Amino acid sequence: MMIASACTNGSNQPANNNADTTSSTVEPEKVIIPDAIPASETFYDFDSTKALVIANPISYDVTTKCYVHGDDGWDEQRVANTNTVAIANAIFQAVYKGRLTPYDYFTEQQMPIDSVKAIEKMFTRKQIGKIMFTERWYFSEATLQFSKKVEQVTLGYELIDKSDGELRGFKPAFLVKLNEAK
């Protein structure tokens, strides 16, 4: 649309390239931009604070330990201030105290505490190297603030190949639903 208006002289008359342009002015078309889009015309959701709901929900993994060495330290710097053991300790304590309910990652069925204890016999908390977050994301156009609400956390244990010491992947321990905290 902008290309079409840039190629015309604003009227239905052909352009006169020989005309004297010093005595006539062409007023540009006025574009009216509303201050706000009325709620009836929006195509996105708002939460109770009038923030845009950007993701409802979104899940993603965060590798919290450095498994790549020799890349000029970028991966090491990325996770240098991450305390995975602290979050693991807090989540396990909340599970053992009954404040959070553990769920099987694959079935989302509630796990008995004995199953959590069995996982801890196979892996140590220091072996947790990945955390999956399920969140809702919000953006306030008024304040230009972006916020997130973490709803679920899944802890993932590293699977290291004993023959060569290489990381092969991660195994989910369990997930907890933070909105169910007691």
3D structure, described in words:
19% of the residues lie in helices and 30% in strands. The chain has 182 residues and is α+β, with helices and mostly antiparallel strands. The protein has one domain. The chain has a five-stranded antiparallel beta sheet. The protein is flat and about 80 Å long. It starts with a helix and ends in a 5-residue tail after the last strand. The N terminus is likely disordered.
Brief synopsis:
By secondary structure, the protein is of the alpha+beta class.
Key features?
5-stranded antiparallel sheet, single chain, alpha+beta, 182 residues
Write the layout of secondary structure elements.
Blueprint lengths: L1 H5 L45 E12 L10 H6 L4 H13 L5 E2 L9 H10 L5 E13 L4 E16 L6 E11 L5
Distance between the termini: 57 Å
Let me know the number of strands: 5
Mean pLDDT figure: 80
- Compressed to H and E, one letter per element, the order equals HEHHEHEEE
Strand order of the largest sheet: 1-3-4-5-2
